[in-house]
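In the previous lecture we treated proteins in isolation. Real proteins rarely work alone, and many bind small molecules. This record shows how such a complex is specified: first the sequence, then the SMILES for fe (ii) ion.
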Amino acid sequence: MLQIKRAGHSTLTTPDIERTIDYFTRIVGLSLAAREKNRAILATKSGLEAIVLERGGAVDAPRLSFQVAPGSDLGEVASSLKKAGMKSERRTDITPGIGEAVAFTDPKGTTIEIFSDFKFAPEDNTFTGVMPIKFGHIAYQCPDVKGMVKFYCDVLGFKVSDWRSDFFAFLRCSRDHHTVNFLRNDKTAIHHIAFEVRDWSDIKRACDMLARNDIKLTWGPIRHIIGHNIAIYHKNPDGVVIEFFTDLDQMYDEELGFFEPRPWHQDRPQKPKVWGDDTPSNWWGPMSHGSPQHAQALAQPAAAPVHHGLQTAPRKPALAEARTKQAQKKSRGKTKPRR
Ligand SMILES: [Fe+2]
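The predicted 3D structure, ligand included, written as tokens:
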């Protein structure tokens, strides 16, 4: 089994690369580390490559890179994948920072590029946009969530942090609560991309920054219960949902088996678990359990983008089913009290 250590960058295709570069540099506050005719490499200000943009007809996230331990033998990475029944190939010049990687296709069709060593992009001391500290996580919709979880755990060394019922999985490969999410849906597609910011004051600055640029939040600020991150969401010019977050749960010691205790946790200790499908999406206010917004959302199953606040298309079947169940419970007066 491989042991992924962190996510490197996500490759996104965009029909208007100039517009998307402008968004990621001026609004998100990434640095343009390299520019080719049909491609751009964007890094955090401190030099971690985060997003690769490619000119393309459709908006998609066809590739994702992961780092294994520095110095790892990529030949052994390929052997390990072969043992798991995966065909892979060696690729070079992935980005200016990644000279070599082993590439293969995961079961939902995303090309995964595994690298062991990389170079930081030059530091950028200019002050523009939100300026996240890293590419935090990526969430996908796909039909076979259980199959994806098994593959990522058995082959890539991920661990399950939490489940929402049986349709939304949160997987970690480091101390961060989640680096990838899988949400069950009929179609396979990107769900959202998340960048970590330093703290709450950067979330506040991001809200003002987005508003000043006429970009409205689609959700937040909230504190999630699963993962407990403080988060805001908006859509980029291509309609991709972008999250900025801070305060994500941390598993500092795997042997202890619980997330670093925090005053806002529901359980003591807060261990990985399966959360009920009636778990509120927001610990603080709107969309918290029993709030008017929550009741309204439950009364309109599969209509508005409400549960995780992210999608434009109706969410069938998993979330819609969950909402319907919640509405039924509520109408029977059996709603569980908020914890
Ligand atoms: Fe997220």
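Summary for your notes: The longest strand covers residues 6-14. Residues 318-331 form the longest helix (14 residues).
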